[in-house]
Amino acid sequence: MARNAKGFTEDDDALLAELGVEVEAKKARKLTPREERIIAGFEEIQRFVEQHGSHPQHGEDKDIFERLYAVRLDRLRALEECQELLSSLDHQGLLSGASAGPAEPAETMSDDELLAELEVAATSDDISELRHVRSSAEKRAAEEIANRERCEDFATFKPLFELVESELKSGQRTTRRFGKNATIELHQWFILDGQTAYVADVGEDFDSPQGKKDARLRVIFSNGTESNLLRLSLVRALYKDETSRRITEPDAGPLFGSTLEEDDLESGTIYVLRSHSKHPFVSEHRELIHKIGVTGGKVESRIANAARDATYLLADVEVVASYKLAGVNRIKLEKMLHQIFAAAQIELTINDRFGHPVKPKEWFLVPLHVIDEAVALIINGSITELRYDPEQAALV
Fold first, then answer.
1. Where is the Bacteriophage T5 Orf172 DNA-binding domain (predicted)?
2. Cα–Cα–Cα angle for 223, 381, 238, nearest 5°?
């Protein structure tokens, strides 16, 4: 039966009329755009609590979005209009809770000052438009990085910058990603915001407000400026800059090694495999036939299904050598290795599981010690003019 605009059927209306009851259709109050945005901002905080099981907290060690939500929640609790608007939605008791730890002294600031601190357009007066909240420590760090002065004795340091640039070009030094927990010491070199930076002096250690050891540095930049910033400020700046790099010492070791330093960026692994195939040719030359490849994942995962993959000669394989690599283009490196040993690539045809003929690539008739030699020459950059000669079984 059809219902009227009040939500009742004709029988319902008749019964209510006999009882003398008038029913007014309840009209839902239309929310203003500001109220809609306030509710949306509050729902973001609620989702955070559902995901993390706790209220958002203030603190420099917290994620930027958590700090944003903590400031927003404090503001919602302080505004009476927000309390009235959100009380029916607050099933988690967020509006009645205590402040989420020490924050900037918002109670002493005007609305315009608070909105400016939260990087909200003052004309909007809208707490739901918060973009990000920077702590006072982060702002001080940014100011220290930005406040560079002209280095009066840059002529003393210029030859050092020229030497480092030359050593980078020759491969004596390399650049590596700046790790999150990496340290900064006297006479170390970095790249920050596109400038080479040199730690020329380190002051006495002292305890920072966060309980960490800190020190005042004198950092010289390649554009002839310098900055007396804190070590922790430089660490934060290097970690925040996605393009920042640490410049290694000339004797920091080869690009490839059996182990990686803590702040190395592992790009992948050169692997050398030997097949257990029962193919007559493979069986006869098993000690000399090797598959050479480069992978960005685990070698063990890559060869897990070798016995069912024609690429691996439909047989199990063993890893006879591997070399980790850092900061190297894997595709170009693999292509280089295959070009070096191109003359020794074997021509072998086998049938896959469906009986189709397949010619596996990346298998070479070359002694293992020559592969070791080739990797070593790639490391020191002297491989460019060499190729493997099957007649001499050597690189020539």
1. 284-378
2. 35
Q: Give dist(CA 249, CA 187) in Å, integer.
A: 10
Per the document, the length of the chain is 396
* pTM for the full predicted model: 0.37
- Give CA separation, 91 vs 34, 83, 96, 134, 272, in Å: 22, 13, 11, 29, 60
Indicate the domain borders of the chain: 1-28, 33-134, 139-247, 266-395
* AA letter at 68: L
CA end-to-end span of the chain? 95
Give the residues across from 271 on adjacent strands: 293, 322
Tokens 């940014």 sit on residue: 142
The pLDDT tens digits along the chain (396 residues) read 444 544 445 555 565 555 555 555 445 567 887 888 888 888 888 888 888 888 888 876 676 777 778 888 888 888 888 888 888 888 888 888 655 454 444 444 444 444 444 433 333 444 444 444 444 555 555 555 556 888 898 988 888 898 888 888 877 788 887 765 567 888 889 998 888 999 999 888 888 777 788 888 999 999 899 988 888 888 888 888 878 888 887 644 444 444 555 444 456 788 899 989 888 888 888 888 899 988 877 888 888 888 888 888 888 989 888 887 766 677 778 888 888 888 888 888 877 767 777 778 789 999 988 888 888 777 666 666 678 888 888 888
- Determine contact, residues 83/77, Cβ cutoff 8 Å: yes
